[in-house]
Amino acid sequence: MAGLLRVIDSFNKWLTILLGVVLGVMSVVIIFQVLSRYILGIPLPWSEELARYLMAYSIFVGAALALRKQQLIAVEFISERLSFNPRRVLKIVINLTGIILFAILFIKGIEMMEKVSTQLSAAMQIPMSIPYASIPIGAVLLTINAIAVIIELLLSKEAVKEGEAA
């Protein structure tokens, strides 16, 4: 299981680089759009659409990475009051529940992709299934990282310090 954890973390390093590139491209596109519209007086019809689609992908990739690092926003009122083993069990149950929700997200995302597969985006004229693919791709990434968190919780033997899992 530790080997699988290393593979997932190595994959996440590449995802982090990809996320940085996507956010960089999105920022450049938005800046270029603003300059083009307000300084040159020539709005770019494709730029807002591209930025929107890149944002959808970056949200899912970023959420998966945050899930792996356990940095998603959470209400930890109950878990903070538990000792190490009950807290670990609670976190495993929460992540298993998340995996069920990610499976539903994956299925519904595929259904949405099928519904919009014949449509083209207004400005870029790409199939709408490309932006909608961010949903099932994100669900897969979230599932992979939830599995990694569960593996890490199962491998942890004791708290590093009082109140935290290893």
Automatic annotation (TrEMBL):
Keyword Transmembrane carried by entry: yes
Residues annotated as domain Tripartite ATP-independent periplasmic transporters DctQ component: 26-154
Primary location class: membrane
Record's subcellular location: Cell inner membrane
Transmembrane segments: 14-35, 50-68, 89-110, 130-155
The entry's keywords: Cell inner membrane, Cell membrane, Membrane, Transmembrane, Transmembrane helix, Transport
Topology term for the membrane: Multi-pass membrane protein
UniProt similarity note: Belongs to the TRAP transporter small permease family.
Name under which the protein is recorded: TRAP-type C4-dicarboxylate transport system permease small subunit
Naturally occurring in which organism (per UniProt): Ammoniphilus resinae
